[in-house]
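Incident log, structure service

09:12 report received: a user says their structure output differs between two submissions of the same chain.
09:20 pulled the input from the user's history:
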Amino acid sequence: MNQTNIEQYDVATWPILAATRIQNAIKKTLLEHGLCDVMLTGGRSAAKLYKAWRNLPYFQQMTGVSFYFGDERCVPPDHPESNYGMAMQTLFQNGVPAGCSVFRMDADAINLEAAAQRYADLLPDAVDVLLLGVGEDGHVASLFPNHVALQERQRRVLPIRGPKPPFERLTITPQVITKARLVFVLATGSAKAAMLSTALNNPNDIAVFPARLTLGGTWLMDHV
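09:34 re-ran on a clean worker, output below:
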């Protein structure tokens, strides 16, 4: 496994500096390939980052970016717990850049197995830039400690039942994370810093610490 890259910013400047770091990675991919697949995440840290990101000069000038989601709560898109709804109110508050697309997880569908398969069929073979939050329990996306979804080796998107409400969710599986070209973990606060330290010091224990799936990526932190 490649070495994890840890980048620490001041608490006050974390949103704008983390957003700039991610934007530069997307810009580089666009310059090299003309297209870029970006997978978004939910959570409070993401909301802060998205509000800063939308105001970067290059953001609205982008073309060729496809935005996906790594997980979604099984609620309507206008529900307060919807990751898609949060992104539309923060990152895309001023509209989706003209040359870009956003693909919502149909997590409020009646048949979640079918919805998961439809979304998996939309995904690229490998995501260029994957954003993930991390929970204090070490979960990423909606892959929670000791969940059977961590053992999935075939499907790329699954319906799962999580340990906290909203319980029903759709989530990417480990193979999407491990195949991503660039992974950025949004980890703010001292508890997330402690989780990174724990994950680093428990080799091979992905079942207990799903965050280990991201080791080798870049953790954007405001504490270490």
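09:41 both user submissions now match this output. Likely a transient worker issue. Closing.
09:42 reviewer note: The first helix runs from residue 14 to 33. The chain has one domain: 5-195+217-221.
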